[in-house]
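Example record

One chain of 190 residues, shown exactly as stored in the release files.
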Amino acid sequence: MSLKIKLKQIDGVPTTSDLEDKEIGIDTANNNLYVNFDGVITNIGGGQIDFGAVGEDILPTQDSVWNLGSESKRWAELYLAGNTINLGGAVIDSDGTGAVSISGAGMTIPDNSRNASGDILATASQGGGGTLQVTRNVDFFTAAQGLDTINTRFKFNATIDDQYTYTGTKTFTLANGDTLSNDDITLFQF
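Predicted structure tokens for this chain:
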């Protein structure tokens, strides 16, 4: 014996006075299906989904397949009440005061990154004297290597203090063959 299901037509979102318990109705204005479950009217599909008032988690049907937005259609703002964003296992955390921290070994920022004032961010390196010192990366070019290709990059002392001129194991060979090493303090400043 077949079961006949009646679908009520309602112009607009139905109420409990429009649908009896377990009765299904269609909103003819927006082509949405509704059902009355124990006195609660629930949208069960059709038409466009209303994301204006989501009352549950929004989960993709498959892991690591679907995007939120695209290259050409981006979301304008992201407002979160929680304190963390899990980005591929790295946790970006805020304490609610505007301070942001990143888990693990921190973050990698591009060379010559700048602060809001336009100043290049300083880096710190283990100096020849064994203490951290502010350094400035300076690209070194040679005619033999070509003036468009960086031959090496030196980390120079960036402050006018009695600190070693350059850091690490880099040495300069002078024209007479002598080696200039980390034994001298600041020679010049960038």
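Notes: Residues 123-180 form one domain.
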